[in-house]
What does this fold into?
Amino acid sequence: MTDIAPATRTRVLAALREQRIETPSWAYGNSGTRFKVFRQEGVPRDPYEKIADAATVHRFTGVAPTVALHIPWDRVDDYAVLAAYAKEQGVELGTINANVFQDDDYRLGSVTNPDPAVRRKAIGHLLECVDIMDATGSRDLKLWFSDGTNYPGQDSIPQRQDRLAAALREAYGRLTGDQRLLLEYKLFEPAFYMTDVPDWGTAYAHCVELGERAQVVIDTGHHAPGTNVEFIVAFLLRAGRLGGFDFNSRFYADDDLMVGAANPFELFRVMHEIVGADALRPAYGIAFMLDQCHNIEPKVEAVIRSVLNVQEATAKALLVDVEALAAAQRSGDVLGANAVLMDAYNTDVRPLLRDLRTEMGLDPDPVGAYRRSGYLEKVRAERVGGEQAGWGA
Ligand code: RM4
Ligand code: MN
It folds into this structure.
């Protein structure tokens, strides 16, 4: 593909203008590995400052108007005040993430714990998160369970599935209106022998049991090496059960690196399935979120770059010549079909994206503009004293 035809260009620009990417509050705080959390200057000290950072990302990219919260990391006295502050800054509060993985009581699991009192506490937290959604106006409750066992025989696998199902039923039953329950899966870690929600099939089966507003979340870093992630995307889209993404990239395990950094081609293939199902538009309902930790690199800039990476992959996916692709597929032209995809993937979409941003009243170079803005220097000077936010590993 050399030149982009005017009609294609108009269609692609319109779709990109509508695209929405949600950034995670925890990406702005300190993070690290189990070996070390490196503190960075200028890191937010409370949820308000995280929102200010998220709003900065939106200001420079124009496509990141919501920020996901993680409870209790982002607990405040009055969520209506937090929502009003977000609005003032030009963003809105998005998905509410529950956290049942950082309490001593959860050593043997949260909602699957053999002790009913611990299960009750964990379910209580999930219900509290729905209360918060009511106050913030958030649509989605996102659940990731670290539950699992480390040794064969440690606990009963089917009984843990029963406990999980019961907890999900209770949380799901508490939702009202268009609120949704998004269930995430992860292959392993912190449990090493058996994880209670290890894969999309398990998450899907529980969602089907719950009802239509229970949907699967694909965290792109939560699979075994070599897994065909776009197959999962296609399957869940077809089943009407793809609720959202936690975008990030991985080299080895759940690395939480910037999306599109390790495998931009995989990201393109994922977005190709999304575009093919016409599921990019916000009205379709998929939450396109980032779930990342910037352990050694500057955080706000890393989130900006991540948003741009998703945008680039999307632009390339939108450039796939669907008619030529269908024709090649119909006639069994294996290499022709593959070439159609590769032509789109190999297109340099950066000039197109620069034009898009100019049309949207943005600087065509968001990273450069952010660097020139002096924001980092400003928050470094302002955010002195107090306790920096972090995920407390
Ligand atoms: C988990 C999972 C969740 C995220 C936490 C911080 O591995 O990906 O989505 O909330 O990490
Ligand atoms: Mn995740």
Notes: The chain has 14 helices and ten strands. The pocket of beta-L-rhamnopyranose (ligand 1) is lined by residues 70, 97, 144, 184, 186, 219, 246, 254, 291 (CB under 6 Å). The first strand starts at residue 22 and ends at 24.
